[in-house]
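Checklist before submission:
- one chain only
- standard amino acids only
- sequence pasted in full

Submission:
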Amino acid sequence: MNIPELHPAFTPQEAVVEANRCLFCFDAPCTAACPTHIDVPRFIKKIASANLRGSANTILESNVLGLSCSRVCPVDVLCEGSCVMHRYNKQPIEIGRLQRHAMETWYDDMENRDWANLTRPVQHPQKIACIGAGPASLACAAELRKLGYAVTLFEARQRPGGLNTYGVAEYKFTPGDAAREIAFIGALGVDIRTGVEVGKDITFDQLESQFDAIFLGVGLGPTQKLGIPGENLPGVIDAVRFIAAYKTEARYDVGARTVVIGGGNTAIDAAIAARILGAEESIMAYRRGESEMPAFEFEYDHAKAFGVRFQWNAAPVRIIGEDSVKGVEFACTESGTLRTIEGANFTIGCDMVIVALGQSKLGAMLGDRLKMADGRVLADPATGVTSNPKYFAAGDCASGGREVVDAVAEGKRAAHGIQESFNA
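Returned file contents:
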């Protein structure tokens, strides 16, 4: 499926020109704004001096998923949002696109060389299991390999990558790019085992007997239900499954009109994807007003640029149809509240309904092994250690849902927390 990119890659000449706009600030507010604290001026200066391998190595020192983060990070509110160019009423340095240029050049070069020389020697006797193969687990596993530990990563699905493989809209990041990063992490010596569901194919008791520490990076659970009539009709799908399906299937039919229920960044990803896939109309319906929408402003602007329409103060009442979806009935809500206005219901006809209410917490698989709060694993943010000193956790299962770059930073911290526990 040929889906256009949101931000096209720089040409080599464009990258050098953009890199030379950077002031290379000594206090680097962009670096401080990055959760993984990439040395932004350093990697950009290396691009300006045509040292692309050195630029990529600088990025990878801080962020092993530097390619994916260059594509999916909300740079407008992180590094680029902190750029000093804003003080001079100038466009911020396009840090994300520069990072992408360095990382893609590095991967293109790496694919023409022998990856085997990347394998790190095992220097310590302890073995660590990482459950889940999303950004937090990948970052934790890679950091532990750099520290000299043997790491085995267990993933229930057939493809590793978690959110990067299945959950990020393809106009931002493709499964192929995710696979390049996973291949790199595998080349570091991480043993990646897919199709293995912990709790079913291997038990926690078995893991505890075989490994000295266990890292949990299991992400979040299924999308929350609407709880209204008709939500089980054919043609109703949750946003996470929708994005995964069109990224992994050769063709995906969305019909002429799609209604997306929700107001977050994932809802916007789904609404834009529906337009890209051929929907004549893609309508986002949100139960609150425009100013209360939780999505980033720049994501909202992207949606409008793709022709997505918005229906504010609309709470779904029922999904209409018999053998398939025909429309959604909404109740109008009062501005600033969720109180419905009696007698003000309306219907939007559609061929598909995408539900994007946010994902549920995924704590049931753990039983009573660890302390939980609101479905999240309770873990020390500095070290990732949980109520059981053998278990560590990071990423969405502990935070409740943040950005990919946050998961990478948390996974790295947990890796060092695991090492500290061995040295205690």
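Reviewer check: The chain has three domains: 12-110, 118-221+361-423, 236-355.
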